[in-house]
Amino acid sequence: MNLLVEEYRKGIYLHREQGENAVEVDSYTGHRVHLHSTALGKAILAELPRERVEEIIDQHGLPATTENNITEREELFDRLDQIREQGVAFDDEERLPGLRCVARAVTDNNCEVHGAISVSGPSSRMQGSRYDEEIPQKLEEVTNIVSLNMGYS
Q: Which of 87, 75, 85 has the alpha carbon at shortest distance from 133?
């Protein structure tokens, strides 16, 4: 499980939790990434006003880290619309080859985004209904609890 927030128009990992069968990747607490290249970042971007996303793109661009990255502005905005509708973001080997990720934004009672939570793993383990349904459902439960705790604590 990963927790990412937006800071200075990039994503920064605040926390990573690894299971016993986890694979080692280059993510660590404090690691910065382009928001458009991760499910976590796209989940955050989908909750921001378009003007703010435009500012982020203007400053950092849409560089490709893999061949699966979105590198066109309008394609990104179309994807963000889908994420907003579905409530979940997917990363299909966009940040790292062989790695898939599912993420949801963490928002407060005023619908202000504070970050995103994700589950990631090797593409071989992240497929079918596990990737499309089970993990998104679990993330919905977790982000709902976090959001409620943020609003009432």
A: 87
Residues 139/119, Cβ–Cβ less than 8 Å: yes
The answer to whether the beta carbons of residues 39 and 118 sit under 8 Å apart is yes
Neighbour-count burial for 3-34, b at 16+ CB within 10 Å, e otherwise:
bbbbeeebbbbeebeeeeeeeebebeeeeebb
Q: In Å, what is the CA distance from 103 to each residue of 36, 89, 125, 152, 153?
A: 13, 5, 16, 23, 24
Is the pTM of the predicted complex or chain greater than 0.85? yes
pLDDT tens-digit series, residues 81-119: 999 999 999 999 998 888 999 999 999 888 899 999 999
CB 132 within 8 A of CB 101: no
- Sorted by sequence, the CB contacts under 8 Å of residue 122 that are 6+ apart come out as 23, 98, 99, 100
80 CB-side CA count, 13 A = 22
pLDDT digits (tens, 9 = 90+) for 2-54: 999 999 999 999 988 776 665 666 677 899 999 999 999 999 999 999 999 99
Note whether 13 and 4 are within 8 A (CB). Answer: yes
